[in-house]
Amino acid sequence: MPFKDILLYIDSYPEPVTPEAIDQAVRFAGAVGGDLSALAVQVDLRAPSSWLADHMIGLSGMCAEQEKKSLGYCEDRVRHFSEALAKQKRKGQAQIIKADMYRVGEHLAYHARTRDLCLVPIMERLGDERSVAESVIFGSGRPVVVYRPGAANLMGRGLSTIVIAWDGSRAAARAMADALPLLPKARVVRLVTILNDKPDARVGMNEDALRHLKAHGVEALADEIPSDGRKAGEAIAEYAIRHKSDLLVMGAYGRSRLREFVLGGATEYMLSDLRVPLFLSR
After folding, report:
1. Would you say residue 155 has pLDDT above 70?
2. Pairing mode, strands 278-281 and 144-147
3. Which terminal residue of the chain has fewer beta carbons within 10 Å of its beta carbon, N or C?
4. Domains of the chain with bracketed CATH
């Protein structure tokens, strides 16, 4: 199924998503032929009722001021989003909602469930957007693209090379299947397996994956490389960078406990040091 209905997350607190992140999302939607909608979230800080705090530092007033600032960022970025869509002659719409700052990810995951794909830009290595991305990965049931303007640019060179991390697992199979609409748009598709990482990661295991891709009209190249003592995430990242990958497709490993998330090693490594845009499915 093609990506006809794409959702972009617009963060507004404590710092807003950059205009460049929005521009990259619009270009991506144009490249894959999809309509792009945006969800901008104004934070609800819910200042605790405390006469002493209000008397000493004006807590409720400070929270109200920050919420107003967040709304201003939402409105500004939504205007930029609409202008960027118009320039690229793309269809789409934007919505501003207000949500508890600790439940933004839940709201985004809910909206992403009725989209083909969700785009989550991350501004800082350890920013709040990462926890939002994790919520969508675990809670939406839809694929997520995570990128970081300036370090892991989405559509920096178009979709010249796409790398698929393949270990034969259920999560990797889900990611490859979800990414199928994108793969024919790349000039080169590469399948990489890290040997000596998992018991099932063995020589020749990617042959059936190559057969499956070929059945969908995708002629992919395959590499099997030893981990050489490196973590799987590190080996995959180095491979993707060496081959100038524009997108890295991989299964998201981990589990959730209520609103707490425990990521698998490779997923944790990739998200903590994002150097290539990630297409993640679970």
Report:
1. yes
2. antiparallel
3. N
4. 5-147 (3.40.50.620), 161-281 (3.40.50.620)
